[in-house]
Design brief:
Radius of gyration: 20 Å
Bound molecules: zinc ion
Shape: globular
Order of helices and strands: EEEHEEEEHEEEEHEHEHEEHEHEHHEHE
Distance between the termini: 19 Å
Largest sheet: 7 strands, mixed
Number of helices: 10
Structural class: alpha/beta
Strand content: 15-25%
Length: 349
Amino acid sequence: MKAITVEPKKPGTARLEDVAEPDPREGSVLVEAIAVGVCGTDVEIVEGKYGWAPGGKTRLVLGHESLGRVLDPGPAGSLKEGDLVVGIVRRPDSVPCSSCAVGEWDMCRNGQYTERGIKQIDGFMSERWRIEPEYVMKVDKSLGLLGVLLEPTTVVTKAWEQVAAVGQRAFWDPRTVLVTGAGPIGLLAALVGKQRGLEVHVLDRAESGPKPDLVRALGATYHTGSATGIGFEPDIVVECTGVGQVIADSLRAVAAGGIVCLTGVGAGGATAKLSAADIAAEMVLRNTVVVGSVNANKRHWYKAGEALARADRSWLARLLTRRERPEDFVRALHRTPDDIKVVVQFAEV
Ligand SMILES: [Zn+2]
């Protein structure tokens, strides 16, 4: 079968090639790939900056934002042939740490977790893949191809759960949220913010293209410029850019008693004038919280499935701005300014 593979930490090694059929030891559920979403992590792996091959191998099958159709449900569980499914990405570490031991692998303490398509387990960019029944999520059939948005939705579902958990430290009646960045994570964070009944504002540098319209179609407000220039102090900021200046502005913009949830991963940035003691002083005097959030556990996968099932299908469909064939995967890795989510499509839904 065909698969998109890469030799991690070696740029320029990604290719579509013939590989063996998936090993039954990888799981009793056999799935036909329909589509796999591409994100910044995939680009980093292909550029040789990130990623680990499975033990004893040199190449890794890429892809972690899956959607597939069950070919063989295997002996266990309630799956049926033809069900639309998505594979959970992370696996608990083998020690396990205290968090992984209770199924909260997203909170892994020792960093020895593994991840499909990223860290030591083959991903989902192959014509067929196998998975353990306990790591398969069935998706609402009416979502069709939109089920490929489940994985990024789990990331924002966890972030929102973190915000709610932190909010419980005191009286908490949030009204407004600012989402920084109108990429897939930012737009899905805005969607969930609306579902939670908040007044949603989204900030991005794009002045045209699909992002402003998508934000307005949600009933949210679109801003360009700086987080400190939006005219009010948001109760919550969900930071989805990882850009130093945007993070610094978010810390200044958030209301007293507010929460800044960081979901973006970046490096460097224009923060030379921001000293740690100054940030701390502001946080102390204003009771603000900054919380980082990554990945998702099974609870978030269930909740994300519910959030997607409730969402407007035509709005979700506008997030999928491009589909590429496996042989054109290199094109899928190059994002244009108007792209939101690009998918590699292996089969029709
Ligand atoms: Zn762990």
